Amino acid sequence: MKDFFTIGELAKYQNISKQTLIYYDKIGLFLPAYVDPENGYRYYTAKQIDYLDTILIMKEMGFSLNEIQQHMKNYTIDTSLIALRRQLTVLEQQIAHLRLVRNRLADRCAQMESVKAFQERNQQPAVKEVSPRYLLYAPVEKPYSFREISIATKKCFSQALKDELPIYFQTGVIVPYENILQERYTEASIAFLPIEKTKKAGNIRLLPRGRVACIYHYGTYESVELSYRKLLGFCREQGFEIISDSHEFCINDYISSGDETEFITEIFFYIQTPKAPDPR
After folding, report:
1. CA-based angle 263:189:253, to the nearest 5?
2. Rounded CA gap, 244 and 258, in Å?
3. CA 246-247-252 angle, 5° bins
């Protein structure tokens, strides 16, 4: 038809699919100027191209189709300025959130790269200073099996997503020291996610700065007994007194590998060296 564009021509000019234009028609956002009653073909005028440009530009700015539809029912320079300023605030909030996500993702990558690069050396127990860390935690229910640990971990993830908490992309557990002494190495009492300091949740505990004896366990979690025995033996040989439960941080887990033999878990106890007896 003269002076009209077919749906295919308009889609080509705008670099969008015909299905997109059909959908916009279906929801009432962008209607064709004319529909042939015999074959149902859609036709558009040149003037409508500007209208479609506005829709696509607003979509690129991050507006939803519903927001665009409501705005364009009767928009003026004043209503447009209000809408654009509001969207600018939304984008600034999204950018701030993405910066936080990027920093936590970079932290996860750095941990994995560091441990992987020195795998052989890291399999030996060592002593180090740990910095303060905050943990979003949930108790593990009896009988403290992998199932209950998984449920507690999922509770933390669910809470973090619901409340938009600044968690790091890592999981971990706390295993009571008495369980370790009784060779119940996999019976954790607490599941946690490392998190940035926040007042948006009450179930957060501070892991303090301190001196720890640590080891990196490589392989399936079922085989963690071997690393615990090595770490406990190291503490005895060095004369360290263990003064905390066991803390386990997953460096490489199901989030980053489907092969359990590639799992890497950092294990540590806070320690102190007993004071020598007063010779007097």
Report:
1. 15
2. 32
3. 130
As a whole number, the mean pLDDT across the chain is 92
**Nearest in space to 232 (alpha carbons), one of 280, 187, 185, 198:** 185
Task: Kindly state the helix (H) or strand (E) to which residue 143 belongs, with its residue range.
Answer: none
Q: Which of 42, 36, 5 lies closest to 22, judged by CA?
A: 42
Tokens of 100: 């936080």
Q: How much is the average pLDDT of 216-235?
A: 94
Q: List, as one string, the DSSP characters of 75-136.
A: --HHHHHHHHHHHHHHHHHHHHHHHHHHHHHHHHHHHHHHHHHTHHHHTS-EEEEE--EEEE
Q: Which of 198, 189, 144, 142 is nearest to 166 (CA)?
A: 198
What number of other Cβ atoms are within 10 A of residue 221's Cβ?
A: 17
Token pair for 260? 């359990």
- Residue 122's φ and ψ, nearest 5 degrees, are -70, -10
What is the per-residue pLDDT across 149-201, written as a single tens digit (0 to 9) for each?
A: 999 999 999 999 999 999 998 999 999 999 999 999 999 999 999 999 999 99
Q: Which two tokens stand for residue 249?
A: 């941080």
Cβ neighbours of 213 (radius 10 Å): 20
Peptide bond into 143 cis (omega under 30): yes
* Strands, E assignment, the chain: 5-6, 34-35, 42-44, 126-130, 133-139, 172-175, 190-195, 204-207, 210-218, 241-242, 246-252, 264-272
Q: What is the pTM of this model?
A: 0.74
